[in-house]
User: What shape does this take?
Amino acid sequence: MILAHTAGAQCEPDRDALQRRSGHLPPTPLLPVANRPLLRHAVDWLMASRVRSTVVVVPEGMAGDAREALRHKPRAMEIHWLERLPTEPLADVLTAAQGFLEGEPFILHLADSMARKSLPSRAETDPVDSLDAVILVQEEARSHPGEVVDLRPRLERAHPYFRVRRGAPAGVAVMGAGALDAAAALDPSRCRGFEALADRLLALGGTVRTRRVREWWRFRGRTGALLEGNRFALDGVSADFDRAHIASSDIQGSVVAHATASIESSIVRGPALIGPGARVHQAYIGPYTSLGERVVIEGAEIEHSVVFAGASIKHLGGRLEASIVGRDARIFRDFRLPRALRLEIGDGANVSLA
Assistant: This one.
């Protein structure tokens, strides 16, 4: 069983910097990465790890959007919902989930990460007694491009005053049923959330192990973090654009285009993702670009960027790179006289002119 907690905050003080600077982006679990909310990425990962029953803990104000994000979930996944007040202590939330867990081991997943591979087999099969936990830890990247990387994680026994060495918690733990009370010590807003959980389990006589994983990305709230996550997700896609409307266009590499998307007189170079109802006309879409639902790109070049649903980019004088374009935003070249820059931007926005 699994307990997916949508709080998912981490310890960086600028966790919300991306939201502030990009015009009121959604809460982290609903943040679209490669056109899917992180909550959906978490559920898909759990499905790939053979989890078939989950409870999603969600603040009341986020419940409607969270349900919509999972509206097209796989049929094999049974989802229960546990709504809470935004100010309700995590301890009370976890206590309310005890009836769902029914005394079985469970997975605690903070809905703020993505992974290319399913739950590591050793973490899944290691004996998990009542007060035990296996915490997934992101291994620090030390390899060079093209280097063969050993993906087999190592098993380590934690010592009192648990510290994660050479990595950071991946936001996922496999826990014994008796560890639920100790999990109440996990405060997602604190820097040592998972370490505090491990300390509490050790103090109760339990055992904490770590499983080091690669090919994992976790949102850390830095400027550019969303671009990093988009690049991470698109690195794993395979070309799928045959059902889209394509006319007089050159499609190169791993491009995924929804069946309702339209690409005309354009070049699209993957990896790239073009969402439902998106329209690309006389444009260039470069690698590591995600276009959301109903996005319009016309007479423009864009690369290594994320464009949210309903936005339009038309007739720019130069290429747009490494950019995040918010929902329903409009970027266009104005040919009216007198010629001037005319901007409407929100609080904390970044505008770079070249």
